[in-house]
Write a structure and sequence with these properties.
heterodimer, A: alpha/beta, Amidase signature (AS) enzymes, 16 helices, globular, B: 484 residues, alpha+beta, elongated
Chain lengths: 487, 484
């Protein structure tokens, strides 16, 4: 299978394009054909614009013919989660609220990918407004896991991980607020990187929780993730929270650094609720790093038990305010039955938002209310500081932390009907967002039933280069990343 | 019972910046609806605010001019409420850490008469913070339309302590505050364009009571005189309610300036819960000493300080200063001219400006910066008159010509034959001697103490000069000769 163009890596395809062994039009055609062939089963896409993609591919080929190719990404089809804006394309957040919305502008990441010559390809399904861990909360229906169509691909970036695993894109972008890149990457057997908060511009990303959201790549390999990160990272004057910092050559660093590293195993991440097969796979990964010469050390993140509560206070508070703009006045769904301004709000929002989004808006409104702010929001912010300090303390002794990405492999669609059970999918990933740290999930094995398992590496702020090098080192010794599902 | 009113004002002032406060699109007034917008102003999905540094500079300047403490960090909060004029359904504002704290506005209460300076006092400020303006709703028979041109314009909210006690005091406060903002170039403060808007918090209490009474917020005071009238009306209304044994309720009332009436908008129970929290999209901005001292260097002298200096330096009467100092350009114009003629002739310069220049400017509907009369030409005119080189009777005519043509007064005097004759030659003195010699009776009367007798001597001199002698010079020459 790996001989198919649509299953190759950016690094491989970049060579083929550069040597003109293939054209971007051929590659894009292959990806389009693959999508048409399999997406009826996967449903990773909310929409795609074939003509637009082929036009971009044609432009790429003309640049290359003229000797003006822009680098390794020139001509590579890359899918975007449907919360990331591309000018002239739908931007739905998988919500009825924005079902007919077309964005007039490019997100900064989109503009940067276009600047690098990439072919922007398709709008990928997700949980509505990125709220969820299974992509079941999409207003347009769930996405199936390519490894088992009866199972979820994870979420909220489930379309991004499933499309990649199914060969419907060469790489994709997702967004990660509490694990929404890493968990679906783990559940679909691909690599997902959540960069340090502030490394990648959020301009053009539909906000869920502003202080936690971060855009990142989903790719087949660490090297590809490094290529993608190099294209999208860096200060953006349109995002005040984006950081001014010098960037390394991620690809060069990821493929040349060999450690050994000092790796910490946070004991709180291996407790009750962890699937034994996941645990075993992660233990084997730990053994690999030890064999590679890494010093392995148990560490403690004592405030881990407060992560979930802290996260659901801060994330919902911000979401309640961020989603206030979807009111049916200027754009988006407006109820046909509304009679006045107040009625437009009530009915449009009642009709436009799904149950999980409403649940979080109500929760967030509550925790910010007069009389409750100090007890909830303010206290959560203080705990957040303690959670970050836990990580920074650990980094006095180790270079990175090693944990499972998800406590369990992909579960059945419809299996977790209790919202709280779904919230527990994120217990290993949300601390990273609260602390603003970089982390990635790299495939580290399969269950007996053939479901992928992900290993999470959590790094120091802005230490993506080391995380990618650790993942690359692991990939070089294992074949997990080359496996493809049978569709 | 005698009641005392307690008044605090919340004044919103639009900051004059090129672009809006959190995005690059132009700020402005009078453009076609929804043309001053971009994805950020319209709160399209995915957009983010980025602070306009010029707006922060302006509010720091306002704060420094009013003697506020400037917070070391500028922090932003979201004020959450739904309204169609607010694109995000939250307003970016400053809640618990306003950028400016304390300070005061110096005011002048009405004097005993127009030409008598009134009592000065300082109205303490609680805070000044920066936020974004909202759009504008236009209501029609069956629909309402929103214009977001105004949305995102930087807006300062200046909150006074509840420290004023009369409508006149509130009026004086607003007048002084407005002048200060215009002086600093912070805003044009045109109330018709909504660049300055005022809400008043009013309560009354028995004289001698220290506890505040029930507060009523009065909105829609959209001209400075409506502020005065609205507050006076509200104080009367509150006194009337208490006097007939009623109780006041905490509420927001809408004042109709045309009708001179107010009606309740909402009571305290209907008050919003704004769910303030720090805006996670905007980083706090450090304001260090270097920043503050740079802005400090740009702060102009305030009107009342200028007035005190004009008293001391130029010995100007109150009536002149009270016109000159409230217009920064006019005061600058005055000082440019005085610089040429010297402080001794400052009052003459001031008189020309206040009496003649302002009249002509008013009739021509132009500002002082646009006048064709340069300070140097006005200075020349004053010097010509002082030297007796032109007829004082012709000076007004010369000035009007200067205003119309921008020519120098000396050139106009030559052209119109308005130069005083015999100023330097001995001619005038000779005519005076002749007049004294020929009118012994008048001379005797004058020397006996009848001052007006001198007028009998002037006629023959004027006649001898064919009307071209300067009356002032004639008077001075006659007195000199009579005294010797």
């Amino acid at each position: 299978m790996a001989t198919d163009l649509f299953y190759k890596t950016i690094a491989e395809l970049g060579c083929l394009l550069e040597t003109k062994a293939i054209s971007s039009a051929e590659l894009t055609q292959a990806v389009i054909a693959r999508t048409k062939a399999v997406d009826g089963k996967i449903k990773a896409f909310n929409s795609f614009d074939e003509a637009d993609a082929l036009a971009q591919a044609g432009a790429s080929d003309r640049r290359r013919a003229a000797g003006d190719a822009r680098g390794i990404l020139d001509g590579i089809p890359i899918g975007l989660k449907d919360v990331i804006s591309a000018a002239g394309q739908p931007l739905t957040a998988s919500s009825r609220m924005l079902a007919n919305f077309v964005s007039p502008y490019d997100a900064t990441v989109t503009a940067r990918l276009k600047g690098a010559g990439a072919v922007i390809w398709g709008r990928l399904n997700c949980d509505e407004f990125a709220m969820g861990s299974s992509t079941e909360n999409s207003a347009f229906g769930p996405t199936a896991n390519p490894w088992d169509f009866s199972r979820v691909p994870g979420g909220s970036s489930g379309g991004s991980s499933a499309a990649l695993a199914a060969g419907e894109a060469i790489a994709t972008l997702g967004s990660d607020t509490g694990g929404s890149i890493r968990q679906p990457a783990a559940l679909c057997g691909v690599l997902g990187l959540k960069p340090t908060y502030g490394l990648v511009s959020r301009y053009g990303l539909i906000a869920f929780a502003s202080s936690l959201d971060q855009i990142g790549p989903l790719t087949r390999t660490a090297e590809d993730a490094a290529i993608m990160l190099g294209a999208i990272a860096g200060h953006d004057p349109l995002d005040s929270t984006s950081f001014k910092t010098d960037l390394p050559d991620y690809r060069a660093e990821a493929t040349t650094r060999r450690g050994p590293w000092r790796l910490g195993i946070p004991k709180e991440y291996f407790g009750a609720g962890l699937d034994p097969e996941v645990n075993a796979a992660v233990e084997q990964a730990i053994a690999f790093y030890r064999g590679h010469g890494c010093e392995i050390k148990e560490v403690s993140l004592p405030h881990t038990q407060y992560c979930l509560d802290t996260y659901y206070i801060i994330a919902t508070a911000e979401a309640s305010s961020n989603l206030a703009r979807y009111d049916g006045i200027r754009y988006g769904h407006r109820s046909k039955d509304a009679t006045d301004a107040l009625d437009i709000y009530f009915k449009s929002r009642a009709e436009g938002f799904g149950a999980e989004v409403k649940r979080r808006i109500i929760l967030g409104t509550y925790v910010l209310s007069s009389g409750y702010y100090d007890a909830f929001y303010l206290r959560a912010q203080k705990v957040r500081t303690l959670i970050r300090q836990d990580f920074l303390n650990a980094y006095k002794e180790v270079d990175a932390l090693l944990t499972p990405t998800s406590p369990m492999p992909a579960f059945k669609i419809g299996e977790k009907s209790d919202p709280l059970a779904l919230y527990l999918c994120d217990i290993y990933t949300i601390g990273v967002n609260l602390a603003g740290l970089p982390a990635l999930s790299v495939p580290c094995g399969f269950t007996g039933g053939g479901l992928p398992i992900g290993l999470q590496l959590i790094g120091r702020p802005f230490d993506e280069a080391n995380l990618l090098a650790m993942a690359h080192t692991y990939e070089q010794a294992h074949g997990w990343s080359r496996r493809c599902p049978v569709l | 019972m005698n009641y005392e009113a307690v008044i605090g004002l919340e004044v919103h002032v639009q900051v004059k910046t090129n672009s809006k406060v959190f995005t690059r699109v132009a700020a402005g007034y009078g453009q076609p609806p929804n043309t001053l917008t971009d994805p950020v102003v319209l709160a399209l999905p995915g957009t983010l605010p980025v602070m306009n540094k010029a707006a922060l500079d302006a509010i720091i300047k306002a704060g420094l001019m009013l003697g506020c403490e400037i917070a070391p960090v500028c922090k932003w909060d979201r004020k959450n409420y739904f309204y169609p004029d607010s694109p995000k359904n939250y307003q970016i504002s400053q809640y618990d850490q306003p950028i400016c704290v304390g300070g005061s506005v110096e005011i002048e209460l009405p004097g005993a008469a127009r030409n008598v300076m009134g009592e000065h006092r300082r109205v303490p400020l609680a805070r000044i913070h920066l936020e974004e303006d909202v759009g504008k709703l236009n209501h029609f028979a069956t629909e309402s339309l929103v214009d977001y041109n105004r949305a995102g314009t930087p807006l300062m909210e200046i909150v006074s302590d509840p420290a004023m006690h009369s409508a006149e005091e509130a009026y004086a406060y607003l007048t002084s505050l407005r002048a200060t903002m215009i002086y600093g170039g912070i805003s044009d403060c045109d109330m018709e364009k909504g660049q300055l808007r005022c809400d008043a918090n009013i309560s009354i209490r028995p004289v001698g009571e220290t506890k505040l009474g029930t507060k009523v917020e009065l909105k829609n005071l959209n001209s400075i005189s409506f502020v005065r009238d609205g507050i006076a009306h509200e104080i009367k209304r509150q006194v009337a309610v208490l006097e007939r044994g009623g109780a006041l309720v905490q509420e927001t009332r809408d004042y109709d300036g045309q009708a001179g009436t107010s009606q309740s908008l909402r009571s305290k129970e209907m008050a919003h819960d704004y769910r303030y929290f720090p805006d996670p999209d905007l980083m706090p901005v450090k304001v260090d000493d270097a920043w503050k001292s740079r802005i400090k260097g740009e702060c102009p002298e305030l009107p009342f300080a200028k007035q005190r200096r004009f008293f001391e330096t130029y010995q100007l009467p109150y009536t002149l200063t009270s016109v000159l100092v409230w217009d920064r350009e006019l005061a600058d114009y005055f000082e440019s001219a005085v610089k040429i003629v010297g402080t001794g002739k400052a009052q003459a310069v001031g008189n020309w400006i206040v009496n003649d220049l302002l009249r002509e400017l008013g009739q021509a509907h132009v500002g002082v910066t646009e006048t064709k009369v340069s300070p140097a030409h006005l200075a020349e005119l004053v010097e010509l008159i002082d030297a007796g080189a032109i007829l004082s009777s012709g000076a007004k005519e010369i000035f009007i010509e200067m205003f119309a043509t921008s020519d120098a007064p000396s050139a106009i005097a030559d052209r119109k034959g308005l130069r005083a004759a015999a100023t330097d030659s001995g001619e005038l003195e000779q005519w005076c001697r002749d007049a004294i010699a020929a009118n012994a009776k008048a001379v005797a009367e004058f020397k006996a103490g009848k001052d007006s007798a001198i007028n009998a001597l002037k006629g023959p001199v004027m006649k001898a000069s064919k009307g071209k002698a300067d009356p002032k010079l004639v008077d001075a020459t006659l007195r000199r000769l009579l005294a010797s």
